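Design a sequence for this backbone.
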């Protein structure tokens, strides 16, 4: 814990730059149920991909993120169903990174935005969404950072869906220009 805290709060920077960056990520969500107002849908573990465009200013980063999630449905209650569950999100994120004398970097972040959920004939748009992120990364060069990230993602209640949350693990590649 002491090592993690020192990594996160260290002000001894390792070649931290400022500028525009792009980040690509892919991962898996661990939940396998989405609660609709008319019941619960069970689906395969979801794949998640995202692309982000942001600006890094030393320890802080601001970014816009587009997220795509897609799953194959298995059942609605006790009834087998076929189809896809799709979620697209547009998020605004704020990150704080802790750099130290090594090439390791830890980051915490928060985000807010909107999500569209499409499931069978039900589709809701502009669902308020939040996320909290924590990552540990390695600066392979001064421009390229590779991270593993945990995200807690939450959508509020909408017309067809109850509020839902997801635990997401991803591998990210960020390139600072």
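Sequence:
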């Amino acid at each position: 814990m002491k090592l993690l805290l020192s990594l996160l709060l260290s002000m001894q920077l390792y070649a931290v730059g400022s500028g525009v960056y792009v980040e690509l990520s892919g991962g898996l969500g661990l939940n396998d149920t989405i609660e609709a107002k008319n019941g619960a849908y069970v689906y395969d573990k979801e794949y998640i991909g995202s692309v982000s465009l942001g600006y890094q200013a030393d320890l802080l980063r601001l970014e816009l993120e587009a997220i795509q999630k897609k799953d194959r449905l298995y059942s609605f209650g006790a009834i087998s169903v076929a189809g896809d569950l799709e979620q697209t999100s547009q998020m605004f994120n704020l990150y704080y990174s802790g750099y130290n004398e090594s090439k390791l970097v830890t980051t915490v972040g928060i985000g807010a935005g909107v999500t569209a959920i499409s499931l069978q004939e039900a589709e809701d748009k502009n669902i308020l969404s939040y996320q909290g992120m924590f990552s540990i990364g390695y600066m392979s060069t001064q421009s390229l950072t590779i991270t593993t990230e945990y995200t807690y993602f939450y959508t509020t209640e909408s017309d067809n869906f109850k509020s839902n949350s997801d635990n997401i693990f991803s591998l990210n590649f960020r390139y600072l220009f």
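The chain has a mean pLDDT of 84.
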